[in-house]
Amino acid sequence: MMKKYLLVCLLTISSIGFIHAGQPDKLIGKNVSVFYPINYNAAAHKPSFALLKEPIAVGDVPGSWDLRPRFYSKDGKTYATLPVAKGTCLYGTGENTGSLLRNGKNVTLWNTDNYEFRKDDGKRLYQSHPWVLGVNSDGTAFGVIADNTWKQRVDLTDSIRFISDGPAFRIIVIKRNSPQEVIKVLAGLVGKMALPPLWSLGYQQCRFSYVPDTRIKSVADTFRIKKLPCDVIWMDIDYMDHFKVFTFDKEKIPDPKGVNDYLHSKGFKSIWMIDPGVKAEKGYFVYDSGSQGNHWVQSKDGKEFNGNVWPGKCAFPDFTRPETRAWWGDLYKDYMAKGVDGVWNDMNEPSVFDGPDGTMPEDNHHRGGGELAADSHLRYHNVYGTLMIRASREGILKTNPDKRPFILSRSGYLGSHRYGATWTGDNSSTEEYMKLSVPMSLNLGLSGQPFSGPDMGGFTKNTTPELFGQWIATDAFFPFMRGHASNETKSKEPWAFGTEIENVSRTALNRRYRLLPYFYTLFREASETGMPVMRPVFFADVKDTTLRKEDQAFLVGNDLLIVPKWAVNPKLPKGIWRTASIVGEHSETDKYQPDVKVRGGAIIPMGKIIQNTTQYKLDSLTLVVVPDKKGEARGRLYEDAGDGFQYKKGDYLISGFTAKQAGTLVKTIIKRESGSWKLGPRYYKVVVITDKGSFSSPWTKNANITVPLIAQNKVN
Ligand code: GLC
């Protein structure tokens, strides 16, 4: 009796705010609520790493709100559980192995260097996204954020359950009429990707490692000689002097500026690797200045922590400190001045070869500063990489204020897409890994990160010609397209597998480059709304529950459906979807190129075949028109200088395309929609695809184009 009385008292006190102390559950937007456990310790969680800013209450959570977390603690762990109705499909949780659909899955959010995804059966990878997207059977949707950086698990076996090693955490729930709307609300909360430079949408060639400089040049030359489009050559760790970051090996790369100048003269950009581990060697300028500034992460006893990575014994910048981020950012000044275009921040989970579980001890000490509290590595581990790329981005932007930074990061956390793109780590050269790359990038896209892709061709082990052909043909439609290979493997450039695969690769790359206007328009959309570039097939019809598991085929934007040749019985959306020829029927009928279908009702802008984006000039534009049931179609094109920030001042152009079929005539109209970008002379060609075949107009400067659907206009 007494016990019961006490409990009632406690509950009363907590509900009048004594224990909650200013943390009652609140509505923070239309159908967006935040829920607090009674023992919420704000100092252990704020400021949020996921959220752009601290949410502002706009009212109380309505009594009718159904999706409420239940918070509790058990055996030293803190829990938040939400019920999942039968028939609800779950997605998200960031970077995962396994299927697109996450129901029944269990992942650990503890950023881990996971070679070939072998550790823990791939149930924890390089990134952590405490985020679940739910799609109800009727197509309405919800999203759940656990605003928690601490080590945790997401268990989706029978509900949505977050289980954390840290203090009790808050939960944000979003409810909307469709998954697309949920994703947009998520982007409003966690931020959007910055518009990347156009060149980063091109094909990129990497290897561990292209050295010496003559090899870099010959790889670049071969792309041009063989007319295989490519925009970027990547330099992996061997360019450094004994793996010391911000240095160049004097023998292998005697003149880094010369290498970059050479690449630039051939229309390439260069990306060079910078890892967080700094060789602990007196006399090395980065270590010396880092020690002088007291920039290193400390062990629990307050001493400099050291652990082994590529260079041997290393110290690690404590990126929770604002002074350390500024120091790190400034290191890029001289480095970028050598003509470096982009930076690859790897090993930033952080990976520590001889550390417990391959990383730092959980009780290592981060000193924080500014708004960040001092705390243990257990709290900051999952955001170590995010803080690193934030520092890199800020430093690069400071030194090159007129260029859009490009940073690729291996580790990440919900919200890290604000600072950089990502790839999915050390996969291997098997069909399984190739197939896995589709749901991996799809779920990253559904978790706020629109710019991702795998090591195309597979990182470890040798690749067969067959696999490489399938992989490059599919990968051409991923947001981030980069071929990579480990140092133990044979060559994996597109010409390394014989003439047939070289031709297959050329077709795949030509397809991507012709579609760049469409891709770039989608990247702009992603930077404005958070909608992913690569989307799951079920986005085409959220009410059609048969599409919910499809993760072989995928969408690029809303209008292109990509069906890989290796897909077995893919589930495709109903309605009109017409196969389009992107670079000419003949070359696309090989057994590798995915079927590219255009949605009825869409107009796709395509450019010319170019060898790199320095040649990107939309002086001739092909519009692929697929009328819907009513004979109508529409599309858009975004264009700007491709780099820099003038577009923010209005120096861009959005064109709108509309088409209408009346009998056998299809009339297409091109209109300026917004932006002050000056357009040079432009030629258009319209290709209309109907159930009777494809019909084309001649090239014309006219912005009103009528295509009669008659035999003489028929193509192929
Ligand atoms: C890591 C990266 C890989 C890189 C290698 C050497 O394994 O994931 O991409 O090639 O380190 O730097």
Quick structural overview:
With 716 residues, the protein is an alpha+beta fold. 21% of the residues lie in helices and 25% in strands.
Beta-strand content bin: 25-35%
Number of helices: 13
| Number of beta-strand segments | 41
Q: Which range best describes the helical content: under 10%, 10-25%, 25-40%, 40-55%, 55-70% or over 70%?
A: 10-25%
Biggest sheet layout: 9 strands, parallel
List cofactors, ions and other ligands: alpha-D-glucopyranose
Cα radius of gyration in angstroms: 26 Å
Structural class: alpha+beta
Q: Which ranges are low-confidence, i.e. pLDDT below 50, for 5 or more consecutive residues? A: 1-22
Describe it for me?
The model is unreliable at 1-22 (pLDDT under 50). Helix 3 runs parallel beside helix 4 (256-265) and helix 10 runs parallel beside helix 11 (499-514). The relative contact order is 0.09. The strands form nine sheets. This protein has a nine-stranded parallel beta sheet with strand order 25-24-22-19-15-14-13-27-26. Strands 1-2-12-9-8-5 form a six-stranded antiparallel beta sheet. A five-stranded antiparallel beta sheet has the order 3-4-11-10-6, with no helix packed on it. With 716 residues, it is an alpha+beta fold.
